[in-house]
UniProtKB/TrEMBL annotation:
The lineage of its organism: Eukaryota, Viridiplantae, Streptophyta, Embryophyta, Tracheophyta. GO terms for cellular component: membrane. This is non-specific serine/threonine protein kinase. The keyword Signal applies. It comes from Quercus suber. Residues 1-26 form the signal peptide. It is found in: Membrane.
Length: 221
């Protein structure tokens, strides 16, 4: 009888403690949480890997894809000394439309620089055509230029500004297949301290897909 009362008392005491103790939850890896947040600036929203910047730490993207925000309207990406406004990002096609910031309000910058891409991760899209403009040419050269290809700055300057402000398309290498597998298995794409592609799972970093996905592979940036 005493043993029965003792067991009942222990059970009541255990139930009491279980009732007053707060429930415990598993904490997700901080990098998994950070890389869940998309990059947003103006009308460019819901941008993820390989881009990073502002609210997305560097490990959420790749080298060469850092973004800043210009006047809360357009993201800016930097190639060497030049800054480019990003007018559009098509993540499904891995390309974006960019325009040189120094030519945004006119085509007479203080410093003349060539447009140079990092061809390891960027390339001109097939839609881009190269047009060369000559101005202030000597008479001997001017006579060699067909009449239909000549223009007067006073008349064409506005049309030229519009063309520059429309920007041009570039393709970028996003390790699309690797990241797609990563996202489909509930992970977030990112990179480690050596800038290799990794998956951020809820419980940490892996260089392959997280447990539970049958597609395991190694990728490097």
């Amino acid at each position: 009888m005493k043993a029965h009362h003792l067991a009942l008392s222990s059970l009541i005491t255990l139930s009491f403690f279980l009732a007053i103790l707060p429930p415990s939850y598993c904490t997700d890896d901080a990098r998994f949480v950070d890389c869940s947040h998309p990059y947003e600036c103006g009308r460019i929203i819901n941008v993820s890997y390989p881009f990073w910047g502002v609210n997305r730490p560097e490990y959420c993207g790749r080298q060469g894809f850092k973004l800043e925000c210009y006047d809360d309207e357009y993201p800016i990406i930097k190639f060497e000394e030049l800054e480019f406004l990003i007018l559009n990002i098509n993540e499904s096609q891995n390309n974006m439309t960019i325009a040189r910031l120094d030519l945004w309000h006119g085509f007479c910058p203080q410093t003349y620089l060539d447009t140079v891409l990092n061809y390891n991760i960027f390339d001109y899209a097939p839609t881009v055509l190269n047009i060369t403009l000559f101005y202030d040419c000597p008479l001997a050269v001017s006579t060699l230029i067909p009449v239909q290809n000549k223009f007067k700055c006073s008349l064409e300057v506005h049309a030229l500004n519009e063309s520059l402000n429309q920007g041009f398309e570039v393709d970028y290498d996003a390790l699309h297949v690797a990241c797609r597998w990563c996202v489909e298995s509930g992970e977030n794409c990112g990179s480690n301290v050596t800038y290799q592609f990794v998956s951020f799972c809820r419980n940490g970093e892996r260089s392959y897909n997280c447990p539970g996905n049958n597609m395991y592979s190694l990728f490097s940036s």
